[in-house]
């Protein structure tokens, strides 16, 4: 007969906040800023020099460092000042910060373009405080309810077919509706409800159509659209 169901809405997910992008770049910068050295060859102290770009050297001669030209040294490698450039945009690093990665030198902008975490929705770089959902990164502001577009970061939400919905929309769209008041039965806060055949009622809406007493936990009789208590049913028969 009457049944109480309440366990089907416990698939709540919560968001984890994750900081991505900027930190990694900052770390990379800090680690290397003090080890790239721009210097000028002191006359008379000419040592061994070979520009790291080799055949691609911008001066045309990788092993010459004319007096008055600066060289850049980073770890074990050396470049002409103007050869020490970003591997993507080819702009000399100069006094800017750079990020080395696997033997390549990147300017901060190109590094970010290439390696920073991107939002799965807008494809723009996430510099701080993104959220992950299904292991994909999102901007907080891009992680929104599939239906009403309100931000879900820090909110409780429910997903359906891998799409996130705010509690209100989920209720409106997918929840069972109460036969008496026609409002969704959302299950938020453990709402109890009654199901009978293919009809559902909020506990508070489940009362006798005739005397209005609650039928929760009691027997009842269906009288076409109505549900009535056994007492009222007896009255009706008399
Ligand atoms: Zn060079
Ligand atoms: Zn660049
Ligand atoms: Zn985004
Ligand atoms: Zn919504
Ligand atoms: Zn109701
Ligand atoms: Zn009654």
Question: How is this structure best described in words?
Answer:
GO terms for molecular function: transcription coregulator activity; zinc ion binding. The structure is a single chain. With 238 residues, the chain is an alpha+beta fold. It has 2 domains: 1-20 and 117-206, Ribbon (Cysteine Rich Protein), CATH 2.10.110; 22-114, Ribbon (Cysteine Rich Protein), CATH 2.10.110. The chain contains 4 helices and 18 strands. The chain has a 3-stranded antiparallel sheet with strand order 1-15-16, with no helix packed on it. Strands 2-11-12 form a 3-stranded antiparallel sheet. β15 (193-196) and β16 form a beta hairpin. It is rod-shaped, with a radius of gyration of 34 Å. The chain starts with a strand and ends with a helix. Residues 1-22 have low confidence and may be disordered. One zinc ion is lined by residues 178, 180-181, 183, 201-202, 205.
- Helix content bin: 10-25%
Largest sheet data:
3 strands, antiparallel
Oligomeric description of these chains: single chain
DSSP strand tally: 18
Ligands in the model, by name, code or SMILES, are: zinc ion
Q: What is the count of structural domains?
A: 2
CATH class of the largest domain: Mainly Beta
How do the SSEs run, as a string of H and E? EEEHEEEEEHEEEEHEEEEEEH
**Judging from the principal axes of the Cα atoms, what is the shape?**
rod-shaped
Give a quick precis of the structure.
With 238 residues, this protein is an alpha+beta fold. It is built from 4 helices and 18 strands.
């Amino acid at each position: 007969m009457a049944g109480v169901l309440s366990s089907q809405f416990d698939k709540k997910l919560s968001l984890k906040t994750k900081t991505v992008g900027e930190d990694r770049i900052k770390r990379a910068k800090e680690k290397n800023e003090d080890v790239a050295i721009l210097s000028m060859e002191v006359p008379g102290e000419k040592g061994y020099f070979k520009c790291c770009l080799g055949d691609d050297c911008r001066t045309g001669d990788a092993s010459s460092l004319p007096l008055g030209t600066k060289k850049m040294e980073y770890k074990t490698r050396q470049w002409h000042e103007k050869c020490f450039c970003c591997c993507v945009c080819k702009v000399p690093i100069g006094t800017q910060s750079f990020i080395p990665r696997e033997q390549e030198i990147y300017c901060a902008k190109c590094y970010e373009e290439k390696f920073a975490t991107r939002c799965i929705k807008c494809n723009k770089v996430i510099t701080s405080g993104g959220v992950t959902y299904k292991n994909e990164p999102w901007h907080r502001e891009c992680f929104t309810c599939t239906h009403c577009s309100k931000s879900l970061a820090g909110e409780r939400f429910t997903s359906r077919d891998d799409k996130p919905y705010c509690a209100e929309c989920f209720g409106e769209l997918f929840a069972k509706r109460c036969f008496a008041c026609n409002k969704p039965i959302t299950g938020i806060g453990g709402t109890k409800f009654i199901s009978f055949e293919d009809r559902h009622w909020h506990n508070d809406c489940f009362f006798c159509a005739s005397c209005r007493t609650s039928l929760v936990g009691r027997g009842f009789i269906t009288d076409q659209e109505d549900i009535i208590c056994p007492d009222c049913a007896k009255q009706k028969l008399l």
